[in-house]
Amino acid sequence: MKQDLVRILKDIFTSAGYSAVDSYQHDLVAEKNGQKTYIKFANHSDIAEVNSFINMLTDGEGLYVITGRADRDLLQHAQNAGLRVWGRDDVALQIGKAVLADIEGSAGELDLLGDPVKKTVSKVDEVAQMAINAIFGGGSVKEEFLEPESSLMARMSQRSERTMERAPERMPEREPEREPEWMQERFMQRAPERVNGRYAERVPERVPVESPAVMQEPPAPALSPDSIVLNLRGTPLKVSKDHAISIAKPHILTYQDAILKLVPFWQYDYQLKSEQRYRSKIVDISGEGSGCLNALNGHGEDLVLHDVRDSIAIPDVPYELRQSMSTKDEARKNMLARIIDEHTKDLRFDNTQGDAIISEHKRFKPSLSDIHLNIDLVYVPIWEVKGPRNSVEINGYTAEILRNPVDDDAEFV
Hints:
By secondary structure, this protein is of the alpha+beta class. The protein has nine helices and 17 strands.
């Protein structure tokens, strides 16, 4: 069903004048008038996927499309982070608008992601219901709205085989020249407003907004009034000193001291696409990935950093600010070399000449121009809890005990 929905929405965006292309990292990328929108589809809402999608948005906007049941708090969290969110009803509404505009010959003027344009909507609800039933199944629809001259309708009708007769009681009367109030409220909630360089959701005063429930890591402990705010891009400190000591005690027996360290990591994500030809064969080299490199020793780390902020608040305690041992260019070269090495393929080709079989070994590796790499320096708070014979390092963001020391010369458990 997801692939069908991707194709349908791609047709709709294309008919509305958008440049819509498939994406390896996302599902679709739609662009119009120089504004890019990255689109991600999901059958069910997932906090990890939402946070990962948010972190991947380096430019443009994000549109998160959920076709199944969605948690209201998670949707509110996504909207607060600057994402547009289309639920099941929103998808049907946008499909209905696009189909109606295509019938009227004004599809090229339709702005699916901009502010709503008020117009007569006497058939929008019927077409929207038809569209959602065509995609998800269920419900009923009259065939009189399937105009043969509509190219978009023709494309959509090929993806649906279910049509039933609409029950009369499901067809409320509407004033043809007036936009329904629920549609106005929905569009008001979706209207974007640029805040601090990116779009956030503008919610009207008459729509109550509840505070989202806890969906990520535990909230950071309350800081004293004399806390220090450091102008560093990094993750928040969510583990107090006492909490870190309690985590470390089983490993050090006797506590002696605890030091807060701010350790730099190179956070990266990349996409790779390359096709190479050898004789009559085409070798596809593609992939994507993300992760962190320790900026002190260059080791790869299994860290997932969702909540990266422009400043870090820490308690007024002694701390160590570690400096990166590599520049951004050096880290980029290191990562590109790792990516090329990881995606290099050694293939064997067997050819028959008479009764003899001749084997050839060929190596294929991507070039630098095939790789799109994003890299950024992020600081992570680390508690080092010392005992009489060893020490334990604890991630101050996730409360996890680190398996590898952040310093090459660290005395570790």
